[in-house]
Design a protein that fits this description.
InterPro entries: C1-like_sf (IPR046349), DC1 (IPR004146), PKC_DAG/PE (IPR002219). By secondary structure, the chain is of the alpha+beta class. It is built from five helices and 17 strands. The N and C termini lie far apart (51 Å). The structure holds zinc ion (6 copies).
Length: 249
């Protein structure tokens, strides 16, 4: 018999970490049960509760509840500072089955969002990660992100799609009066980023453009030691056999 040294992956797994160093079990604020790192074919859901997009890789999931999060969505910071709200930090919230209206793009959302109660500010996570300026093929100059239309009537007409916008964020060239909805100004760029600004790197959770100041992470991994992780994994196996109903779905 030839002794083969265990691969790096095996060593990492024994230490309670998955491939690429992700924790095998995490406690996440959005779900009452521990979430287990699962490969694509083991996942109990097809979409991520954090961003509503299709799961395409490993995810953190609760099999008993059919709840799953992209690894990067599970790592989105729970509190951030954002230039749209100079006075307060924004809190990451699950939509709790309801929906919110996003102040940035004007569309409704039903996944995680960043919120300030005092300012009544709600942002899609992807909108919270919008770059402060973009270059768009339809205009010669860089466009700057304004957190409200820089006009007296708080409205604008989008020079990309031709539709109006009001009381929402806008990318503008102030010099030329060129305006674009945030979605219109970033459509091509989003495609280039696989439709998910938070999924920019395997490390996950970091916005590639806007330096959001992370205040605390949404994952309670640091509170779990290896023995507890084992116990939690066992509990997941047990709860998976029962039909627990989650209130936060
Ligand atoms: Zn996601
Ligand atoms: Zn659950
Ligand atoms: Zn939005
Ligand atoms: Zn605020
Ligand atoms: Zn538009
Ligand atoms: Zn211009």
């Amino acid at each position: 018999m030839i002794a083969v040294a265990p691969s790096h992956c095996e060593i990492a797994t024994k230490k309670g970490m998955g491939r690429l160093g992700h924790e095998l079990v995490v406690v996440h604020f959005s779900h009452p049960h521990p979430l287990e790192l699962t490969s694509l074919h083991q996942q109990p859901a097809t979409t991520c509760a954090g961003c509503s997009r299709t799961l395409s890789d490993r995810a953190y999931s609760c099999k008993a509840c059919g709840y799953a999060l992209h690894v990067s969505c599970a790592q989105m910071p729970q509190r951030v500072r954002h230039p749209a709200d100079a006075s307060h930090s924004l809190t990451l919230l699950p939509s709790g089955g309801g929906s919110f209206s996003c102040n940035a793009c004007g569309a409704d959302g039903s996944a995680f969002f960043y919120h300030c109660g005092e300012c009544d500010l709600n942002l899609h996570c992807s909108c919270a990660a919008l770059p402060l300026s973009v270059v768009h093929a339809a205009h010669l100059h860089p466009l700057t992100l304004f957190f409200f239309p820089p006009y007296e009537n708080r409205g604008f007409s989008c020079d990309v799609c031709g539709h109006p916008g009001s009381y929402q964020w806008v990318y503008s060239c102030a010099m030329c009066g060129f305006d674009a909805h945030v979605g219109c100004a970033t459509a091509a760029e989003e495609e280039a980023q696989a439709n998910h600004p938070w999924h920019g790197s395997e490390g996950g959770g970091s916005a590639p453009h806007l330096a959001l100041q992370k205040m605390e992470t949404g994952v309670g991994v640091r509170k779990i030691d290896k023995r507890k992780a084992k116990r939690l994994a066992k509990r997941i196996a047990i709860t998976a056999g029962t039909s627990l109903i989650c209130t936060i779905l």
